[in-house]
Amino acid sequence: MLADSLLLVAGLVILVRGGDLFVSAAVRTAGFLRVPHIVIGSTLVSLATTTPELSVSVMAGASNAPGLAVGNAVGSCICNIGLILGLGAVIRSIEINRRTILVPLAAMVASGVVLFLLTLDLSLSRRQGACLVAAGVGYFGWDLWRHIRHARRSESAQAVALEANLAPPAARWAWFATRTGTAVQFVASALLVVLGSRLLVGGAIGLAAAIGIPPIVVGLTVVAAGTSLPELVTAITSARQAVSELSVGNVIGANIANLTLVVGAAACLQDIRLDRSMQLFNFPAALVFMLALAVLALWRRRIGRGSGAALIAGYAIYVAALLAVSGLPAG
After folding, report:
1. Who's near 116: CB < 8 A, 6+ residues apart?
2. 2-325, superfamily in CATH?
3. Phi/psi of residue 114, each to 5°?
4. Domain residues of the chain, as ranges?
5. SS3 string of 237-262?
């Protein structure tokens, strides 16, 4: 049990550091391409920060732990809205442009509803997984294309400001700010993410077996929170740089990626079987958090500090309820 715990912690550390470097490389690349900050948040950074979830879920699927794969993806969606976005709003109130956020928000809710309906029979086939992956690729490809068409040079400055905080400049690391250095960092950090994922999945499976709990519970809590740390870095950085709208785009885009690319990739490896608690408790919980975000974004058009605190409280209640449903002590 101790060895599994150390393996899990080591995997988390490597995964978070690799994810941090990966995000900074992705944002710097976006700056080179002069991509609008909304695209950076909803598409490029979303895909970059979802790399840990994707890697963990693929590894879990390959390790015959599909419950961990799905739990990681769904748990990350809940964590992204409740904890990550909540913390970002507590730091700085988030003003939301309804026109900008409407399409990604609708895509996120639709993805959650579709996944819920596909798994009503407590299974997700390889064919369904392939359809989810195709839908995710199609959405992000279309989203990137439509925004690049209307890119404005002034918006790239916000990407530069974000990247500067994600990876503070230092003389000895100046080479990594070049295009070649960025490419090297991109590849190296991706390898770190894969390594961290392998360690994390191995530790999580072993720890779940040692404690006697379903791997999906570990995926919904510890693994989901750990793989969501890159989103947390982005949310805090965005708030400090006064471009907190980017954090909303990042969270929504990451959730779409989780519900399509991440779950779909895991299902493509092998058919996934779910238990009834996953279907009746965790999927509806994810939809509730998504609808709460939709209400804040479309009707109130902002997430104030009070709303951020409420989201965090809601996430704490969810975790406590999950542990209670699983028969584990909440304290």
Report:
1. 279, 283, 284, 287
2. NCX, central ion-binding region (1.20.1420.30)
3. -60, -45
4. 2-325
5. HHHHCCCCHHHHHHHHHHHHHHHHHH
pLDDT at 208 over 80: no
Residue 142's contacts (CB-CB under 8 Å, 6 or more residues apart) are: none
- Report pLDDT digits (tens) over 46-63: 776 677 778 777 777 777
With contact defined as beta carbons under 8 Å apart, do 232 and 97 qualify? no
Pull the structure tokens for residue 250: 């990042």
Alpha carbons within 13 A on the beta-carbon side of 122: 8
* Coil/strand/helix, residue 139: helix
> Angle CA(7)–CA(13)–CA(18) in degrees, nearest 5?
120
What pLDDT digit, counting tens, does each position of 261-303 carry? 999 988 888 888 887 776 788 899 999 999 999 998 888 778 8
Name which residue leads in pLDDT, 133 or 91: 133
With 0-12 / 13-18 / 19 or more C-beta atoms within 10 angstroms meaning exposed / middle / buried, residue 153 is exposed
**For residue 278, what are the contacts with CB-CB under 8 A and spacing of at least 6?**
67, 70, 71, 74, 122, 216
Cα 197 off chain centre by: 14
Answer for the pair 90, 242: CB distance below 8 angstroms, yes or no.
Answer: no
Quickly count helices (H) and strands (E) in the chain.
18, 4
Task: Output the pLDDT for position 287.
Answer: 95
